[in-house]
Amino acid sequence: MRWRLLAALVLMIALGAAGVGRAQVPIYFNVIHCDPHFASEADWGALEDLVSAADARGIALTIQFNPAWSGVISSDASRAGDILGWVADGHEIGGHHHVLSHPGAWDGYSNQPAAVNAPGYLGSMQDWLAALTALLPSSAEILTVSSKDFDFPAGVDFQTGGSGSTPSPSDAASVPTLKSLNGAPVWQIDHAALIAGGVWQTTQMKAVFNATAADQVFGVAFHPHDYYTGNHENVDEWFDFLVGVDPDQSHSQTAGAILEAHRQALQATVPGASMGVLAVTSLLLLCAALRALR
Fold first, then answer.
1. Are 218 and 172 in contact (CB under 8 A)?
2. Which phi-psi region, left, alpha or beta, contains residue 223 (left: φ > 0; alpha: ψ -120 to 50)?
3. Do the domain assignments include residue 13?
4. Residue 173, strand partner residues
5. pLDDT tens track of the chain, all 294 residues?
6. CB count, 10 Å around CB of 138?
7. Distance between CA 86 and CA 92 in Å, rounded?
8. Ordered alpha helix ranges (H), 175-249
9. Could you tell me if residue 3 is inside a domain?
10. By three-state DSSP, how is residue 170 classified?
11. Which domain CATH number covers 268?
């Protein structure tokens, strides 16, 4: 995680200092939504396969769990260690929430008053965050949460997906946006669905990726159940496309690392700073990144 954050920070500040684009390859991230109604042994196995496929190509994943995955994770004592191993390998852990009105399945948590008397109500979004924290290893920090604004848990700094539905490939390119949720600043970035309504959008996603502007970040989301045994073709095609356009995966980051790098870059870039100051800042950050990689 640390080296990906440093790499993202160096890229953002260096590109901002130089005033240039990203050499035709945007910074990008891949989010795995672990849905509440898909939390079986088959889904855990598909998630393991997804991580292995990403590792084989050097692609970073932002894996967002739901509290409903507690049973499948706790059913095998080795799975907590697996999660920590994924983080050590450069992936990132987050949370994925389904609101009361979600067409697939509500996960039982909500800050909406109407939810309290709804069948299956389990608690508020702070209860959701506590349940998510409890199912993960204690050192696995929850950096991002995919949830609507009205159901966003307090105490999380970064949001993926925003407040609206983002199934269209055109939603994949965006810029980090600062908003106030629960009276606190939260940085948000969008992503789009690689498969929506049962239809794979891989071809359209490639076109949007290639057209992403220099000041944008590209994000795509899919699920473990999209990678069940015998159904690897479409995700593998997407991963192989990323390897083709970014062979060394230098622009592959996690969502949390991108947002933290953006926040730190803004803090480092003071108003009126000269180009020379920004260049020196970038050089210092690069040196720090190189030291962290040793």
1. yes
2. beta
3. no
4. 218
5. 454 555 555 455 444 444 344 457 999 999 999 999 999 999 999 999 999 999 999 999 999 999 999 999 999 999 999 999 999 999 999 999 999 998 889 999 999 999 999 999 999 999 999 999 999 998 899 999 999 999 999 999 999 997 766 679 999 999 999 999 999 999 999 999 999 989 999 999 999 999 999 889 999 999 999 999 999 999 999 999 999 999 999 999 999 999 999 999 888 764 544 444 344 334 434 433 443 443
6. 9
7. 7
8. 202-211, 233-245
9. no
10. helix
11. 3.20.20.370
d(CA 246, CA 242): 6
* Whole-number Å distance between alpha carbons of 251 and 217: 10
Q: From 224, 95, 226, select the one nearest 155 (Cα to Cα).
A: 95
Q: Are 52 and 89 in contact (CB under 8 A)?
A: no
Range of the domain at 224: 23-272
The helix (H) or strand (E) run that includes residue 83 is helix 78-88
Domain assignment present for 16? no
DSSP 8-state symbol, 123 = B
Total residues found in the chain within this entry: 294
Q: How many domains does the chain have?
A: 1
The pair of three-digit structure tokens given for residue 47, joined into one six-digit string:
């998630």
277 Cα distance to chain centroid: 31
Q: Is residue 119 part of a domain?
A: yes
